[in-house]
UniProtKB/TrEMBL annotation:
Residue stretches spanning the membrane: 6-28, 40-58, 70-94, 115-137, 157-182
Compartments reported by the entry: Endomembrane system
Pfam short name (any one): MtN3_slv
Protein name: Bidirectional sugar transporter SWEET
Keyword list, A-Z: Membrane, Repeat, Sugar transport, Transmembrane, Transmembrane helix, Transport
One annotated Gene Ontology cellular component of this protein: membrane
Record membrane topology: Multi-pass membrane protein
Organism phylogeny: Eukaryota, Viridiplantae, Streptophyta, Embryophyta, Tracheophyta
Keyword DNA damage: no
Organism name: Populus tomentosa (Chinese white poplar)
Length: 223
């Protein structure tokens, strides 16, 4: 009964993970049609690649006992193919339209550098984790704890990585709040000052008109 339940839960988990890994397909299909990355970030896909690499390594017999984590290996191996495909598509369409112009060529180089800056640390982290787990720990139990802990942290970062998109808006929220506070505080005062100035101008105009009438009347009397 326990093995059957474990198998059912494993299949359900793999199905959910497959849906998660394949979710960006619609986004990249739109990018392929438009031949542009549409300025979206590559960071979530590189973090997801690291997550899949670590969990695949975690499920291999080198870390786990025999093939007890075979479902983990299969789904994350498939996830590696998904994420690599997404990153390669992103790299291919990272330039803007019209590669002939020098400005767009510079944008292409910058885009490729951004991809490299995000992918290279992922490879380094995986290689370091694999090396430490192989040469520093000599039993499956401690290897599983170490690799599983690193993979767990990576999973948390992966699910939080889309927040990179909203980070500029989060930074701007305090400034928007400050603007609203200043507006609510000074909006009435500004209206009063303007109306006061307007009243003074009207009174000055009336006084000047009255003075002009008096001068005209005095001139008429003299004549």
């Amino acid at each position: 009964m326990g093995d059957t339940l474990r198998l059912v839960v494993g299949v359900m988990g793999n199905a959910a993970s497959l849906l998660l890994f394949s979710a960006p397909i619609l986004t990249f299909c739109r990018g392929i049609r438009k031949k542009s990355t549409e300025e979206f970030s590559c960071v979530p896909y590189t973090i997801a690649l690291l997550n899949c690499l670590l969990y695949t390594w975690y499920g291999l017999p080198v870390i786990s006992c025999r093939w007890e984590k075979f479902p983990v290996v299969t789904i994350n191996g498939l996830g590696i193919h998904f994420e690599l495909s997404f990153i390669l598509i992103y790299l291919w369409f990272t330039s803007a339209k019209g590669k002939a112009s020098s400005l767009n060529f510079i944008c292409q180089i910058i885009g490729e550098m951004k991809v490299a800056i995000t992918v290279i640390p992922v490879i380094l982290v995986f290689c370091i984790t694999a090396a430490i787990s192989l040469f520093s720990f000599h039993d499956h139990h401690h290897r599983k704890i170490f690799v599983g802990s690193v993979a767990l942290v990576t999973s948390v970062v992966m699910y939080g990585s889309p927040l990179v998109v909203v980070l500029p808006n989060l930074v701007g929220i305090p400034l928007w709040i400050l603007q609203l506070v200043l507006y609510c505080k000074y909006r009435k005062r500004g209206i009063k000052e303007e109306s006061h100035k307007w009243d003074l101008e009207i009174r000055n105009e009336e006084k000047s008109k009255q003075l002009q009438l008096v001068i005209n009347d005095s001139n008429n009397d003299k004549s």
